[in-house]
Amino acid sequence: MLNMSTPTDLKSPCVTRNGMVKLPPQPNGLGSASITKGTPAAKNRLCQSSSVPTILPPPSLPYHLEPLPTAASLLGPDLDASPLTTMKPPLRQFPHPLLERQLVLDEKLLNRLLWYFTTAEKCVLAQVCKTWRKVLYQPKFWEGVTPILHAKELYTILPNGEKEFVSLQAFALRGFQSFCLVGVSDLDICEFIDNYPLSKKGVKSVSLKRSTITDAGLEVMLEQMQGLMHLELSGCNDFTEAGLWSSLNARLTSLSVSDCINVADDAIAAISQLLPNLSELSLQAYHVTDTAMAYFTAKQGYTTHTLRLHSCWEITNHGVVNMVHSLPNLTALSLSGCSKITDDGVELVAENLRKLRSLDLSWCPRITDMALEYIACDLHKLEELVLDR
Predict the structure, then answer these.
(1) Gyration radius of the chain's alpha carbons
(2) pTM for this model (two decimals)
(3) What Å distances lie between residue 293 and 105, 272, 361, CA to CA?
(4) What residues pair up with 36 in beta bridges, in sequence order?
């Protein structure tokens, strides 16, 4: 028997009361939900899978209840739209597994994505698969990175007890141009040169720390590595000033020597005479005196822009006089730990080195506030001043 609704029965069942909207019971028997005015709607969680996240409108936007589209409106007028069909939600489409595999192996995508990872993370990601390794082993991903190789890591022990130098092919594929070698000897350096394919022309920078390199080893290294432009010697006590005279090459533009007990004034003489293209010199030597500062030539007066003198205890204001006249184009100067420098020395620097942008006067106990007045009056291009103690 067909029941007809009266006009009063057609009145909307949603009645607003105290900011609450009461929804009528749903025909699927899943209960009802209430919507509080001014708050996001709370969906009945029985209506959706737990793996599908709930999507709520932003709280700042008005919330409107709209009827669900029917199957007839989506698929055409010829479809028999039953109540079950109209209430059935559309299925969510997930990417095909094959498409996902193509994306993670797409080299064009990987070339852009892998830029966002750190060096340590790239080392791990290169082990994921051959494709990722191929992409990550391009030299562009390793520019500016310096591998640190300890002497004990350069050899593998064979079953018969003999030592074999490790393969450096993986480093060559990534095109490393700088290396830090720790605790190596003359033999280790020769083995490195013979086993690293880019050592003759491709290596631009080498740092030797706490190594037992001698004059002979230093000479072989600088003779064989024709592309070397930056050299650092730290804690290497077996080479002498005679080794510097016999090995230094004019192609070097940056040299750093620290904690090497055999370095004194004669070493500075070798540096000034043999390195006319030197642009940066860092020196930590306890036996360098004022005399050494007068060895720099007119050629280096134009090319040398950075001079760092760390803990050169024997340098006084007289050495500063020699320095400012020999190197007038300095833009960065460090006198850190030069404990005999006084306010008069700082005045000489301020009056003669007007191009300075960086000045380090840390651990200079004889400098007072008067030195700051000289700096403020004359060094108008200064950008960095270090006064730590």
Answers:
(1) 37
(2) 0.71
(3) 59, 10, 18
(4) 20
Can you tell me the distance from the alpha carbon of 365 to that of 339, in angstroms, rounded to the nearest whole number?
A: 6
* Per-residue pLDDT tens over the stretch 171-201: 999 999 999 999 999 999 999 999 999 999 9
> For residue 237, how many C-alpha atoms fall within 13 Å in the half-sphere facing its CB?
4
Given this model, what pLDDT does residue 72 score?
45
As a whole number of angstroms, the distance between CA 93 and CA 80 comes to 24
In this structure, whether the domain defined by 147-386 belongs to CATH 2.40.160.20 is answered with: no
| Backbone torsions φ then ψ of 195, nearest 5 degrees | -100, -15
Neighbouring CB atoms inside 10 A of 288's CB total 23
Count of CB atoms situated within 10 Å of the CB of 32: 10
CB 185 within 8 A of CB 160: no
What is the number of helices (H) and of strands (E) in the chain? 15, 15
**Which amino acid, one-letter code, is at 1?**
M
Angle at the Cα of 98 from the Cα atoms of 94 and 102, rounded to 5 degrees: 110
Q: What is the mean pLDDT of the chain?
A: 81
Structure tokens at 8: 């009063």
Neighbours of 263 (CB within 10 A): 27
- From 308, 310, 222, 218, select the one nearest 259 (Cα to Cα): 310
